[in-house]
Amino acid sequence: MVRQMMLGLRSAGAEVFEYSTDEHPEALDTDGRPYDRGTTSPVWLRWEHLREPLEAFAPDLVICNAGGLSFRPEVAARLREKLCLLGIALSDPDVFEPTTRHIAPNFDVFLTNAPTLVETYEAMGLRSGVVPAATYEGFFRPMPPRDEYRCEVLVLGRDHPDRIEPVRALVSTFDTHVYGEGWEQHGVPSRGILLGEDTLSALNSAAVTVIFFLMGSGYPLVKVGLFDFLAAGALVATNRYPRVERFLRFEEDLIGFTSTEDLLAKVRFYLDHPEEAERIRRQGRARVLAEYTWQKVWPGVLRELQEER
Asked: Are 193 and 257 members of one domain?
């Protein structure tokens, strides 16, 4: 997701220098703790490794995107005298206590995936907002269906507690393909992990793809997967969460369900009414591509940053 955000920024017309910390682990400092991408502590960027590329590129804006990444306070203060620092969290609120509350003060603006934390950050004296909902259409696009992925229902993701009962019901009622970790301990067969274009083919081979709205901690989110999977051409069903309606319309752009029984009934209905299912599938993709791609939303973020500066 982080790289897709970067590619969307580039496609919006910005000149972007990409610095992947996966390719430069020597630039990371965890104060002697195991590196876990910011799950349990901040991940500091070593100035001695970033100095040369930053001075050579001379950016107006530096974005530290996810992974608990931040410059140390004294370095961030010096940088903010000349440029804008934007921090982004994609795993709040799970990482707020150990990580993001410690790094957020180092940025001009800190965007979080958890809307309920915006007030918390602002109470700390920070400028905060919500990470925009968007996808990168350069990757998430329709692919031809493949026989090995054809099914009535597709579930992608690990065995979070809220998913176990409805996934069991789906498996017992429909031809359901489940991909992800932890399912076997609940008696649900998993087909492993899908990556890259295999994911796109699976999304286009399933009649309905289900996305559940809770994180592992039980926190509800408008999942970025809604926009990714709709852009890829899937017919998506998700929990009827009010925040989703700020972006997408239930039964127009995607399917909404309120319980396991409702989910089973909705899947049955759309399997029996393929023309209606196809209408929603097409309309959902068209809406996302028209309004919710990174190329379209980044300019608004940049304008807000410019006003903040």
From this structure: yes
Contacts (Cβ under 8 Å, ≥6 apart) of 288 = 135, 227, 230, 231, 248, 253
Residue 235 lies in domain: 147-291
For the chain, the domain total comes to 2
- pLDDT tens, the chain, 309 aa long: 999 999 999 999 999 999 999 999 999 999 999 999 999 999 999 999 999 999 999 999 999 999 999 999 999 999 999 999 999 999 999 999 999 999 999 999 999 999 999 999 999 999 999 999 999 999 999 999 999 999 999 999 999 999 999 999 999 999 999 999 999 999 999 999 999 999 999 999 999 999 999 988 889 989 999 999 999 999 999 999 999 999 999 999 999 999 999 999 999 999 999 999 999 999 999 999 999 999 999 999 999 898 877
Q: Is residue 285 part of a domain?
A: yes
The pTM for the full model equals 0.92
Domain-embedded: residue 142: no
Q: Is there a single domain that holds both residue 271 and residue 303?
A: no
Q: How far is Cα 307 from Cα 210, in angstroms, rounded to an integer?
A: 39
CATH code assigned at 250: 3.40.50.2000
